[in-house]
Amino acid sequence: MRFIDEFRDGKAASAYIGRIHAACKHPWTIMEICGGQTHTIVKSGIDNLLPPSITLVHGPGCPVCVTPLEIIDKAIAIASRPDVIFTSFGDMLRVPGSEKDLLTVKSEGGDVRIVYSPLDAVKIAQQNPDKKIVFFAVGFETTAPANAMSVLHASRLGLNNYSILCSHVLVPPAMEAILSSPENRVQGFLAAGHVCTVMGYEEYIPMTAKYHVPIVITGFEPVDILQGILMTVQQLEKGVWTVENQYSRSVKREGNIQAIELMNKIFQVTDRAWRGIGTIPKSGYRIKEEYSKYDAEKVFNVSAIRTHESPLCIAGQVMQGLKKPLDCPAFGTRCTPEHPLGAPMVSSEGACAAYFHYGKLNR
User: Fold this and answer.
1) Handedness of CA 339, 345, 348, 353 (dihedral sign)
2) Domain definitions of the chain by residue range
3) Taking the mean position of all CA atoms in its chain, how far away is CA 324?
4) Which of 57-61, 128-132, 165-169, 241-245 has the weakest average pLDDT?
5) What's the pLDDT score for residue 362?
6) CA 22 from chain center: how many Å?
7) Residue 206 above 60 pLDDT?
8) Does the pLDDT of residue 203 top 90, yes or no?
9) 69 in Cβ contact with 97 (< 8 Å)
10) Is the pLDDT of residue 10 over 90?
């Protein structure tokens, strides 16, 4: 457990908490971008150990949560076809669509399968030439290289029965959308370490100068997050704004060059809708035209599907740092993990799920 336990060490965590209290002289609002960071914060009680003047708000860094409702409905439409084997990571199966979820499609007889890699889906396509195999390709820059590799691998194998339903979104444009909003309250960011492991952090440098906010690339263990908060507070108290890399054991400034080249081969940047937030310009990937035979939206002609969000769900405001899950009148009553109104209540990285599972239900 080396390299894990040291970032969960109680003495180290206590030392960082003390340093944060000593450094913090003013009220600050800090957003952690990644849903994995949110779960660590709530599960570990970090939010309760910080000075009262520090407010942590939760960002749009849960890939399941920001997948738009219309994409879920497109997935359901495709998965319901008798000629399709629909493959996905398990966390997408209970995300509610307009009327049902993928798990319901499976219970109704649809061939919906959980896989652990998109390359597993390519293998299924090889083994089932009489079926059309679709992989649900969602997520941030973190999962995009593997999904791009699956398309490239299927192309090299000459498979004509494999495609991906692509709903990749990009973190920096979402951060900029938050910062440019007249309602913005975020003064500093804990940026998502896994995204930066792939992409590096050069994109964030002009953002700090433009909006006067510190951005600290941060890992996911309690000590990582406490150190990231301390680094952010120290910048805020000094009145400086720059990019710092707390997660240096995994993140390089330039990122993973080979992964970036692979993504650029298969994908191109496009406008993308974010569930609960709306369309953010140039905030996602779509499949390039030369690989369009692997684009499930085109293969199954589902581009025309349009939907409307439930007015009862405030997930969009939660993911923009404007509200907390407990501000939602439906939280824990009309919206539960068994009967969710929105994806943040069922995702393993959703803020609402974190609050529900880790004891904030009655606070």
Assistant:
1) negative
2) 5-62+171-225, 65-170+257-299
3) 17
4) 57-61
5) 47
6) 32
7) yes
8) yes
9) yes
10) no
Task: Write down the residue that tokens 């949560």 correspond to.
Answer: 65
- Same topology, domains 5-62+171-225 and 65-170+257-299? Answer is yes
Residue 363 scores a pLDDT above 50: no
The C-alpha atoms of residue 246 and residue 220 are separated, in whole angstroms, by: 11
Taking the CA atoms of 328, 332, 333 and 338 in sequence, report the sign of the dihedral they define. positive
345: helix, strand or coil: helix
Let me know: does 155 contact 185? Beta carbons within 8 Å. no
* Class for the domain spanning 5-62+171-225: alpha beta
Integer Cα distance of 178 and 213 in angstroms = 12
Domain spanning 65-170+257-299 has what CATH number? 3.40.50.11740
Strand 162-168, strand 243-245: pairing: unpaired
Burial state string for 238-262 with b = 16 or more CB within 10 A and e = fewer than 16: eeebebbbbbeeebeeebbeebbeb
- One-character DSSP codes across 175-225: HHHHHHSTT----EEEEEHHHHHHH-SGGGHHHHHHHT--EEEE-SSHHHH
Q: What angle do CA 231, 236, 240 make, to 5 degrees?
A: 95
Rg (CA), the chain: 21
The mean predicted confidence, pLDDT, of the chain is 92
pTM for this predicted structure: 0.89
For residue 310, count CB atoms less than 10 angstroms from its CB and return exposed for 0-12, middle for 13-18, buried for 19 or more: middle
